[in-house]
Amino acid sequence: MSVRFLGTSSNYDGSPTLFATATGYLVQGWLVQDREDTIEIPHRLLAFLEPGTCLSARLEDTGRGTFLLSGTPVSDSSILAEIEVPSHERCIEVPSAREIRPDDSPLVNTVTA
Fold first, then answer.
1. Whole-prediction pTM value?
2. Which residues are within 8 A (CB) of 30 and not within 5 positions of it... i.e. 6 or more apart?
3. In 10 A of CB 93, how many CB atoms?
4. What's the angle, vertex CA 104, arms to CA 61 and CA 6, rounded to 5?
5. Fewest CB atoms within 10 A around its CB: which of 4, 11, 47, 98?
6. Spatial distance between the Cα atoms of 43 and 9, rounded to a whole number of angstroms
7. Which H helix or E strand runs over 83?
8. pLDDT on residue 82
């Protein structure tokens, strides 16, 4: 699997971080106790999503500027070494989807002859 760096919301240690893959996103975030498939990420990390896409996963707002995000834990040692995940963090894989906004509906022709 190849990964492409999209951005980080950190000013000092490079994480949490967002990466793109061929099928979605790898998201590096803080460990959540007793939840192997869940990480915590800052709201501002989502600004790095590729235009026109979204995470195909439910985000749970913590009420303190972060989301809880669940996905498939990344266990491939070569990927983990490439993206350098610190011990207080975890990386999960989350599918992407096309962003569909309520105002994206096609215009209806209301002109009559």
1. 0.85
2. 16, 39, 40, 41, 88, 89, 90
3. 21
4. 50
5. 11
6. 9
7. helix 77-83
8. 86
